Automatic annotation (TrEMBL):
<feature type="domain" description="Major facilitator superfamily (MFS) profile">
    <location>
        <begin position="5"/>
        <end position="381"/>
    </location>
</feature>
<feature type="transmembrane region" description="Helical">
    <location>
        <begin position="295"/>
        <end position="314"/>
    </location>
</feature>
<dbReference type="InterPro" id="IPR036259">
    <property type="entry name" value="MFS_trans_sf"/>
</dbReference>
<feature type="transmembrane region" description="Helical">
    <location>
        <begin position="352"/>
        <end position="373"/>
    </location>
</feature>
<feature type="transmembrane region" description="Helical">
    <location>
        <begin position="70"/>
        <end position="86"/>
    </location>
</feature>
<feature type="transmembrane region" description="Helical">
    <location>
        <begin position="326"/>
        <end position="346"/>
    </location>
</feature>
<keyword id="KW-0472">Membrane</keyword>
<dbReference type="Pfam" id="PF07690">
    <property type="entry name" value="MFS_1"/>
</dbReference>
<feature type="transmembrane region" description="Helical">
    <location>
        <begin position="242"/>
        <end position="259"/>
    </location>
</feature>
<feature type="transmembrane region" description="Helical">
    <location>
        <begin position="92"/>
        <end position="113"/>
    </location>
</feature>
<feature type="transmembrane region" description="Helical">
    <location>
        <begin position="125"/>
        <end position="145"/>
    </location>
</feature>
<feature type="transmembrane region" description="Helical">
    <location>
        <begin position="157"/>
        <end position="179"/>
    </location>
</feature>
<feature type="transmembrane region" description="Helical">
    <location>
        <begin position="205"/>
        <end position="227"/>
    </location>
</feature>
<dbReference type="InterPro" id="IPR020846">
    <property type="entry name" value="MFS_dom"/>
</dbReference>
<feature type="transmembrane region" description="Helical">
    <location>
        <begin position="43"/>
        <end position="63"/>
    </location>
</feature>
<keyword id="KW-0813">Transport</keyword>
<feature type="transmembrane region" description="Helical">
    <location>
        <begin position="271"/>
        <end position="289"/>
    </location>
</feature>
Length: 382
């Protein structure tokens, strides 16, 4: 039953990833259909992530009232409904309204599942689970790009992903009894909880850890949201080609987390974070330097490979750093900081780039990455 439960959580992470990259890959075409400025894509992202922050902060309370499985099924169903709403919308205000359930559906399930896995499974499973998120995040823009290239429109792309989400929600609903069979907590987590040094360590780690989550999301979400626009506006690629190329970023995350699962057997969480930062730096430099356009694909792939181990390692370290008593609440706070980075930085970056030059997109990523490296190192030393 433990293996079946783990398989269900893998399925949940695919569901989490499917809608995450849709807006960024579809926006170059969406804005033309709606007659909207480029920067308005950041406003939609802002609305989605505001809802996600609220539900993430409420995750501790909701998980105490509902089981993890039940809350996950409800959240996936909400996301499916929001995606259907996107598929039938014909105006920007309508999209804004559907952004509310879009965001609320993601926050609780994300915080709840990450806490559940960090508490009860080894680091390799955290990486592989987020690899399955990458499968969903890679499939999303690929399916959207296919719909755009065949002239079906972005509405059909959202409708297709909505149908997949509805199917996943049905599977989760009928498998609720499986969630009653939970593996025990990890011994490493229990040992930290009992340590007399834990309270002082918690205080010194909290601020840099939260800031690192904020900055990681700035890197990942800014790449996902504005990567296609960078390729179309600055390098002159077509919208369907840009949507397919940006999927390389999510493919890098997917493949990177698959490999990170094996590396994490040997390397600590902090070592995995440092390795990811170095690879991510190489990818951003490939986007920043004046190289032939063919290198852009490698830059996106390397940036994704670098992002791959960072987020799972930071999540997996949470119970070990703070203990089980504080981990559930702090997991929600960390997720909220992550979503705050999603909320603020992509739209602010888009606003800045729209007024200066989309060519500065890689430079913005570089600034976020260097700041994140400093915060993650401070958290590791604390």
């Amino acid at each position: 039953m433990y293996a079946l439960l783990l398989a269900l959580i893998y399925l949940c992470f695919i569901s989490l990833g499917l809608p995450d990259a849709l807006l960024g890959s579809a926006w170059p075409q969406m804005r033309l259909t709606l007659g909207a400025p480029l920067a308005w894509g950041g406003f939609l992202s802002l609305l989605i992530t505001c809802g996600t922050i609220l539900s993430s902060l409420a995750s501790g309370f909701l998980l105490r009232r509902f089981s993890t499985g039940r809350l996950t099924a409800i959240s996936v169903a909400m996301t499916a409904a929001a995606l259907w709403g996107f598929s039938v919308s014909r105006s920007f205000p309508a999209l804004c309204l559907w952004c509310i359930p879009y965001g609320l559906g993601a926050g609780c399930v994300d915080a709840g599942l990450n806490h559940f896995v960090a508490l009860r499974y080894e680091a390799k499973h955290m990486n592989w689970l987020h690899c399955f998120w990458g499968i969903g995040a890679t499939a999303g823009p690929l399916l959207m790009g296919q719909c755009l290239s065949q002239g079906l429109g972005w509405q059909r792309g959202y409708g297709l992903i909505s149908g997949i989400q509805i199917l996943l929600a049905a599977v989760l609903l009928f498998s609720l009894p499986v969630w009653k069979h939970q593996p025990p907590q990890r011994e490493a987590v229990l040992s930290v909880e009992e340590s007399t040094a834990a309270p002082s360590r918690k205080k010194s780690v909290i601020l840099p850890a939260l800031t690192a989550f904020f900055l990681y999301s700035a890197v990942e979400l800014t790449t996902g949201l504005w990567g296609s626009s960078f390729l179309t506006e600055y390098h002159g690629l077509s919208a369907d080609t840009a949507a397919q190329w940006i999927s390389l970023f999510y493919l890098g995350i997917t493949l990177g987390r698959l490999g990170s699962g094996f590396l994490s057997i040997r390397l600590s969480d902090d070592a995995m974070i440092r390795l990811g930062e170095v690879i991510c730096l190489l990818g951003i430099l490939a986007l920043l330097l004046p190289l032939p356009d063919g290198f852009l694909r490698w830059g996106l792939l390397l940036t994704g490979l670098g992002c791959a181990p960072i987020y799972p390692a930071m999540l997996h370290a949470t119970p070990k750093r703070f203990g089980t008593t504080a981990a559930q609440s702090l997991m929600g706070v960390q997720m909220a900081c992550s979503y705050l980075g999603c909320t603020l930085m992509p739209p602010l970056t888009g606003l800045l780039l729209s007024h200066i030059s989309m060519g500065l997109f890689p430079a913005a990523l570089l600034v976020f990455l260097l700041l994140m490296a400093g915060m993650s190192q401070a958290a590791a030393r604390a």
